Amino acid sequence: MITFIFIIGVVFAFITLISSVKVINQGEKAVVLRLGKFKAVAEPGLNLILPYIETMIKVDVRERVINVEPQKVITKDNVTVTVDAVIYYKVVDPVKAEFEVEDFDTAATTLAQTNLRNVVGDKSLDETLTARDIINTNLRDVLDEVTHNWGVKVTRVEVQKIDPPAEITEAMSLQMKAEREKRASILQSEGIKQSQILEADGRKSAEILRAEGDAQAKILRANAEATAIQKLAEAANKYFDEKAQIWKKLEVASVVLANNAKFVIPTSSDIVNVLNLEGDKSDVIPMKRK
């Protein structure tokens, strides 16, 4: 009998020892209660408690996510839209998170839905569709202010979708299509205008270059002719003596009288003596040297 009682005692002591040893994982904390009253917060690792007197409640302190179910919200301009959101939070005070709120997920979801209706209801449809960041910030500030008393930190709130009615979506699609077509027409017109401007500039530049080329060519030709005349004048001054002048006069007379042409020439001219136009019988009268 004594042996049996001893065995029972050993087993009870072993069970008691085992039940007093608690292991808390990384990313968790625990609230220790002694006879139902808060005693301490246990950190991750191996912890010992008094069996049968103390109990331990584990609390996950990692960041967690709550999905806010889609709900219909009326905007400021009386358009019904369907909105949902995602809440990211983490427990910063395990004691408050355990004792200040019964079910944080339900409380946070209800609070987010209520404030989502308020925030979206203060904006028009266009503002709601283009101001997601403002809505996210406003929701986060409101939720964080309330959940602070619950030992929870709301890190961010993201509105996932804002769906207007089908007829509004179709009208917006047609408006966007019209805007795209308008921008395309404007861009096409600008392109044609720019092309015409560039083409006109090209023609203008070509005409200017052509005129500059013609002017330069005329200048070069004029310079060449002037140089030739200058050279000819220099040669005439140097080589065109009296006999050469008489010979040149004969050539001119031969050309002008080739077709039995008649000319009135003063008798005092030297060319009359050369051509024997005074009626002498001899063909050519030699020139007298002056």
TrEMBL record:
Major localisation: membrane
Cellular location(s): Membrane
Origin superkingdom: Bacteria
Domain annotation Band: ranges: 19-176
Cross-referenced InterPro entries: Band-7_stomatin-like, Band_7, Band_7/SPFH_dom_sf, Band_7/stomatin-like_CS, Stomatin_HflK_fam
Coiled coil: none
The keyword Repeat belongs to this UniProt entry's keyword annotation: no
GO cellular component, one term: side of membrane
Alphabetical UniProt keywords: Membrane
Xref: Pfam families: Band_7 (PF01145)
Family: Belongs to the band 7/mec-2 family.
Name of the molecule in the record: Band 7 domain-containing protein
Organism classification: Bacteria, Candidatus Roizmaniibacteriota
